[in-house]
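Hi support team,

I'm filing this because I wasn't sure whether my run with zinc ion finished correctly. The job status page said complete, but I'd like someone to confirm that the output block is well-formed before I use it downstream. Pasting the exact inputs I used:
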Amino acid sequence: MADCLFCKIIAGDIPSTGVHETDTTYAFRDINPQSRVHVLVVPKNHHEDANELANHPNLLAALLKAGVEVADIEGIKDSGYRFVFNTGDDACRTVFHAHLHVLGGEQLTDFGR
Ligand code: 5GP
Ligand code: ZN
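And here is everything the job wrote out:
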């Protein structure tokens, strides 16, 4: 999608620090990390959010698998990590291209309100 930040990152028009890639997914470091490890895993094709990804279960599974492989690459597979899909206004989602946050590398706090 022409006006999408993450589509531009996937196309290489905006630089990113890549961590992992498959034929359908790309993972790169978050520009404003919320923990020592903070990587975003995105589908290469534009899908707005998790609600849309639910219509593409193979892609959803590919994103989760890529997230586990990112955790392994980052050395946090055993120490623990958190997967987050922010979806909609109440979750404060800011980028309208679906993305899986992979967070870890230190003790995370509780989350919620
Ligand atoms: P959301 O709040 O939509 O779930 O998460 C969007 C994430 O994208 C945020 O954690 C934010 O720091 C990250 N982000 C926004 N712009 C850029 C960018 O240009 N490059 C990278 N690598 N991450 C970005
Ligand atoms: Zn996009």
